[in-house]
Amino acid sequence: MSVGYRAVGWNRFKLQHDAWLAAGIVLYVALFVGATRVLHPQATLETALIRALGSGAILLLHVILAIGPLCRLQPRFLPLLYNRRHLGVTMACLALLHGSFALVQYHGFGDRNPFVSLLTADGDWSRFSDFPFQPFGAAALLILLLMAATSHDFWLHNLSAPVWKALHMLVYVAYALLLAHVGFGVMRDEIGWGAPAGLAAGAVALLVLHLLAARREVLADRALPRADEDGWVDACGVDEIPEGRARVVVAGGERVAIFRWDGQVAALSNVCQHQNGPLGEGRVIDGCVTCPWHGYQYLPASGQSPPPFTERVPTFRVAVTAGRVRLDPRPCPPGTPQVPARCVGAGRAVPGDAGFFVGYLPAVSPRLAARLRASVEALLLLAMAVSIGVAAGQGPFKPSTFEYGVVRSFEGTLVEHPLPTLLLDRPLAAGSEAPAQSRWLLVAPWKHGAQALVAGLDGQRVQATGSLVHRDGQTMIELAGRPEERPGAGSPPEPVSLGEVELRGQIVDSKCWLGVMNPADTVTHRACAVRCLSGGIPPLFVVRDADGAAVSLLLVGRDGRALNGEILDLVAEPLVVHGAVEREGALLVLRAEPGDMRRAD
After folding, report:
1. Angle, nearest 10°, between helix axes 45-73 and 84-107?
2. Inter-CA distances, 452 with 150, 223, 233, 564, Å
3. What is the per-residue pLDDT for 1?
4. What span, in angstroms and rounded, lies between the C-alpha atoms of 282 and 240?
C-alpha cells in the first residue's frame, strides 16, 4: 500500500535495501572463501564455497529471527522489519545454493540418484551417536523454500492472515532442524571452534532476545478494571493518548488500540490484517491509521481500508467523559462504522516521533536515516567479522593435491585385481639389482572405479592418460579414457607379509582422501565416501602412527577380493580392525573381513 493507495513496486528504499543486501552477501562469501584459501591453502574451493554459503544463510537467519524481538524492545529497529521478507527470500536462496552444491559434491555423479543417496547414505537412524545430519538440513531447506515461495502478498491474501502467519511461524521449526543439522554433522568432526562457538552464541542471543520481548509484552498486557453495570470499562485518560498515535489496552481478552487525532478518539483492534502487525504502534497519516510494519492503512472511524482496498479490522465503541476514555470491550464486526468521540486538549508528545518509518514514503527523517546507516554499517561489519572468524576457526586441512585439468601420460603394467592399479618402473635403487616399482591406484572420472575402463588388460603393458591425485607419497591416476596396449607384459611384485595386526582408524574412499576433496574423512564426508566406494573407488583404511601422521592401507578381503559393497555401513566410523598387512612394492595392503571390523568404543 501507499499513502495514496497505489500499488507499491520496487521503490527507492526497497532498491537501496536490496542493493546493500546483495553487497553484504557478496562481501561475506568473498571474504570467507578468500580467508579460507589464505589461511588454509590445502582446502578445496568447493569446500570453501559450500561452507561460505551455509554459514552465510545461517547468519542471515539469525538476523531475521532477531528483528522481531528487537522491534518489540525498541521501535527504532522497525525499518529492518519493513523488508524482512526480502531477507527471508535471500536467505532461502543462499540455503538452496548451499544445499545444491553439497548435493552435487557429495551425492552427484555416482551410482545412485542423488536425492535417494541423500536419504540413505548418511548415518544410522537406530543409533543416536550416529544420527544422519543431512536429512535435517534438507527438511529445513524445504520449509524455507515453502516460506519463500509464499512470501508474496498474493498468498497472504488468499490464505488469510492467520493461516499465512501460522505457515511462516514454521521458520522456528526450520531453525531447530538447522541446529540438528549442524549438531549431528559438522560439530562431530574436527572442524575447529568457529562453527560451534558461533552457532551457540547465536542461539543464546536469540533465546535471550525472545524472552526479553515476551516479558515486555506480558507486562504491557495488564487487564483493565472490571466493567461497570453497562459493560463498559474505564480505559485511560484522554491526555495519556499521544496526538496522532494510540494507547493500547487489554479489554475483553484482546488488545485494543485507542487512537486520538484532530480532537477525535476511536478504537480499533490492534491486529493488522496484513501480517498481524501492531496497529496501536502506528500513526495517523493523511487521516488513516498506518501500521508500523508495512504501512497498511485503515480509516479510524470504520476500521476499513480506503477503496480500492478491502481489508477491515473490528471496531469498538468509545465515549469521553470528564477527560476519561470509556470503552465497550465487545468488538463490532470488522469494518463497522463508529462515531468518534470528541475530546479537547493536547495529547502527550512521543519522544523521537519524527522517526516513524513507512517504507514507501518519499522522505525519511535525518535522525532515522542516520540510524539506518548505522544499522547497515553494523550489519556489514558483523558479516565481515563472522566471515573471517568462522573461516579462521576451521580445523586444519591436510596437504593433498588433485591436478584437475592437467592430463599426463604414463606407461606401466596394469594390474586389474582386486582393484585396478598401474605398476610404473623407477630408476634403479641403490644396491638393488632390479628396477624399483611404484604402484598407483586407477579410477574413472567422478565417483566411479576404473574396472570398466581396464577390463581385459590385466598384466598388459599399457599407456594411460589422466590427472594425478596424490598425498603423503601415495598416488592415483584419474583416467581420461581406456589405456592403450603396448608391447610387453609384467606382473606385480610378490607381496611381503608384515604379520597379523589390530589397527584403529576409519574407512575412507581413496580418491577424495588423496586430494579430490579436502577434508575427505569423518562424518561430513561419509555420504560422498559411500557413493565413491559403491561406484568402485578403492577403499583405504586410515590409521595414525605414533606421531599422529596418517598412514593409509588399501583395504581388501582376506582372499584379495574387493570389499566395496560389504563395508558401506562402516564408512567414516571409528573402527578397530583385525587383519593381515602386506607390502606390495610401495603399497600397503590390509586384508580383513567385515567380521573382523568393529566400531571402536
Report:
1. 160
2. 48, 78, 86, 15
3. 44
4. 16
The answer, yes or no, to whether residue 158 has pLDDT greater than 80, is: yes
Q: How is residue 446 written as a grid cell?
A: 567422478
What pLDDT score does 318 carry? 94
CA dist., res. 579 & res. 574, Å (int): 16
For cell 584403529, what's the residue?
A: 504
What tens digit of pLDDT does each residue of 49-82 get? 999 999 999 999 999 999 999 988 887 787 788 7
Which residues are paired to 290 by β-bridges?
A: 283, 297
Contact by Cβ (8 Å): 558, 480: no
Is residue 204 classed exposed, middle or buried when 0-12, 13-18 and 19+ CB atoms within 10 A define those classes?
Answer: exposed
Place of cell 532515522: 368
Residue 599 burial (CB count, 10 A): 12
- What span, in angstroms and rounded, lies between the C-alpha atoms of 338 and 312? 13
Of 407, 410, 419, which Cα lies nearest the Cα of 448? 419
Largest pairwise CA distance in the chain: 117
Average pLDDT, the chain: 87
Going by the DSSP 8-state scheme, the letter that residue 312 receives in this structure is B
In the chain, what are the domains?
19-220+364-392 (no CATH), 233-355 (2.102.10.10), 398-601 (no CATH)
What is the band of 189 on the pLDDT scale with cuts at 50, 70, 90? low
* Average pLDDT, integer, range 372-395: 85
d(CA 406, CA 427): 24
Amino acid 417 reads H
Q: Which residue has the cell 571390523?
A: 597
pLDDT at 5: 44
Q: Is the pTM of this model over 0.90?
A: no
pLDDT more than 70, % of the chain = 91
CA atoms within 13 A of residue 451's CA, in its CB half-sphere:
14
